[in-house]
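Supplementary Text 2. Reproducibility record for the structural model of the 196-residue chain.

All settings were left at their defaults, and a single model was retained for analysis rather than an ensemble. We include the record here because the model underlies the residue-level annotations in Supplementary Table 4.
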Amino acid sequence: MPTRVASRSRKKKPEPKKIDVGTVAAIGVAVGGIATFLSSILAMFFGLGVWMPVGFLGLLLAISGPSMLIAWLKLRQRNVGPILDANGWSVNAMARINVPFGAALTQVAVLPQGARRQLRDPFAEKRRPWALYVILLALLAVAGLWYLGRLDLYLPARMRAQELLGRDSSAQLHDSARRAQAGETVKEPAAHPVGK
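Retained model, structure tokens:
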């Protein structure tokens, strides 16, 4: 009795669904039809020869022509309501443009008397001063090269790092360390007389 209950409680695994041959055939027919349609269109398009640009323009007109026609019909109604509604004005009524109103909207704007033009945009986004950053970085690089004594060959004697910094200059310390490693004797610089 317990063995029968255990065998009933086991669930059978669902059998994997098989792909029907008819489905595969239908997919093949659909892909073949689409490929035939596209190849016939391309064959006709490339068969135009010299008239291919005209065919391209015709294709563009066939795609965008209906929307252009609908836009022309809506603009012909001379209604500003949809334009204002698209700009967030929430105008649901007909806002027709008559001739005087259209002339007022399309006339060239004139500055009021006493007004002046401001050519600088006060609401423009602030740009980063990249040129200033590059100049500061170049100055820091030149100062570092001067401190290390790399520019001493190109500078007059009074502006050299060894002359201005004395024995504390990095180039002199580097030079003395190099000489000490090479086994040469390092001479102490002569002290400058004070007050003369």
